[in-house]
Design goal:
Blueprint lengths: L16 H20 L3 E2 L5 E3 H9 L3 H4 L4 E3 L5 E4 L4 H10 L9 E10 L11 E10 L4 H17 L6 E6 L3 H17 L6 H6 L4 H5 L7 H5 L10 H16 L5 E2 L11 E8 L8 E7 L3 H4 L7 E7 H11 L11 E5 L2 H16 L4 E3 L6 H11 L3 E5 L1 H6 L1 E6 L5 E5 L3 H8 L4
Parallel strand pairs: 1-5, 7-8, 12-13, 12-14
Antiparallel strand pairs: 2-4, 3-4, 5-6, 6-11, 7-9, 9-10, 10-11, 14-15, 15-16
Length: 425
């Protein structure tokens, strides 16, 4: 009896080469959009002190209490795989004294995160996000800039029908009054709430607003709205955000039930939705977290950011038929015929790569027909053919794979010729 085949864990998955093309395209677009807006890349560890997320994200949030991969390491330290980016980035901001840099500090990141959730399309236990943070600025114009940055990125990857939902959940000055009103409302309607929401409404009533339980939806429809309880400062801030968005012609929908699922949010919160139906239509979102830096041991520092799910964006691209235009990296296939041409073909592939011309080939294979068939399957636009005659005459045959047209060119000038044709500078 053979050994049992080992497979990937539930909720973990492999990205195969044909899938990483779109994945890499999205990341390249994100890097370009972020860098052009003055963001610098930061990379934090996958593994952090468990207390970072308990204190920063909230010990009783689902992301920490139910879904976080936490364990004790061999030195008896409580550690956790990161369930989100912001807490780790704020920890790095404090630890490395980034408050001494010109403010605001604008950071972007991307990579894998981990939550022990029920796997489904667009929701895996290991998943990937792109993320931005602006730390050190409280002005409402920054909120609008961050939101518009996300929308610009969506346009860059051809997702043009993304919708934006907005809300303000206030701050410490006005949250208490709203929280009291919410608890009283839920207490009166407790019997109509789902069991899980009945358990949580006294300790964290805002979390109930984020409930996806069907039996709670009718109660939530008439719940007190955050916008009616904002203090003057929070009201002025949110009005400023809307003024900037209106000035740019950005379409949005006010959603009084939008609170986001993490404890650190204050004031502006927002989410982006694609065209797909169902609970996984949210592409991501974010908001202000003006108290988090201080909560994690730093000086009081305002901040805002967002995170977007790569897997969900890939699903949205596929659903919308908005296939991203891919950069043509594999531009030339070098085919050789016979032993004398083998070394010449091998040498030419390396010279093309040194000249920034994407090139590949199989110099140890005989049979031009099979080599050109492989080149056609790989989708390269051009093939270079080198045989014994070409080696003697120091030439190559350049073949257009679409039309089949061929031309003879000097070997010593082919790299420069292709760089010119492809516009490589």
């Amino acid at each position: 009896m053979g050994k049992q085949q080992i497979q990937s864990l539930r909720g973990m998955y492999d990205l195969l080469p044909e899938q990483t093309v779109d994945y890499d395209y999205i990341l390249a677009a994100f890097r370009s959009v972020a860098r052009s807006a003055g963001y610098g890349r930061i990379e934090t560890p996958l593994l952090e002190d468990k207390a970072l997320f308990e204190r920063g994200v909230g010990a009783d949030t689902d992301a920490v209490s139910k879904e976080m991969y936490a364990f004790t390491d061999r030195s008896d330290n409580g550690v956790a795989l990161r369930p989100e980016f912001t807490a780790g980035i704020v920890r790095a901001f404090i630890e490395h004294g980034m408050n001494s840099q010109p403010q605001p500090v604008k950071l972007y990141s991307y990579g894998p995160l981990f939550r022990y959730d029920r796997p489904q399309a667009g929701r895996q236990r290991q998943f990937n996000q792109v993320n931005v943070e602006v730390i050190g600025e409280a002005a409402p114009s920054i909120d609008a800039q961050v939101i518009v940055l996300a929308l610009r990125f969506f346009r860059r990857i051809n997702l043009t029908n993304v919708t934006l939902q907005l809300n303000s959940i206030g701050d410490a000055a006005c949250r208490g009054k709203y929280r009291t009103a919410l608890i009283e409302y839920f207490k009166v309607n407790a019997k109509k709430l789902a069991a899980v929401d009945r358990e949580r409404y006294e300790n964290n009533p805002l979390r109930v607003l984020d409930s996806k339980e069907a039996s709670s939806q009718s109660v939530l429809a008439d719940a007190p709205q955050t916008l009616n309880y904002l203090c003057d400062a929070c009201q002025a801030h949110f009005s400023g955000v809307l003024e900037y968005l209106d000035d740019l012609g950005v379409a949005y929908e006010l959603n009084p039930l939008l609170v986001r699922g993490l404890d650190y949010y204050t004031r502006t919160v927002f989410e982006f939705y694609g065209e797909r139906e169902g609970s996984q239509s949210a592409l991501g979102g974010g908001g202000r977290y003006d108290a988090l830096v201080e909560r994690l041991g730093g000086q009081p520092t305002p901040a805002i950011g967002f995170a977007l799910g790569l897997e969900r964006m890939l699903l949205e691209i596929d659903e919308a038929g908005a296939k991203a235009v891919q950069p043509d990296d594999k531009r030339v296939y070098v085919a050789s015929l016979g032993e004398p041409a083998r070394l010449a073909a091998f040498r030419l592939i390396e010279q093309l790569l040194d000249g920034s011309v994407g090139a590949l080939g199989a110099v140890d294979r005989d049979g031009i027909g099979s080599q050109l068939a492989r080149a056609d399957k790989l989708g390269v636009p051009l093939a270079i053919i080198i045989g014994q005659k070409e080696v003697r005459e120091e030439t190559v045959i350049l073949r257009d794979m679409a039309s089949g047209a061929q031309e003879i060119l000097p070997l010593n000038g082919i790299v420069a010729e292709l760089r010119s044709r492809f516009g490589i500078v």
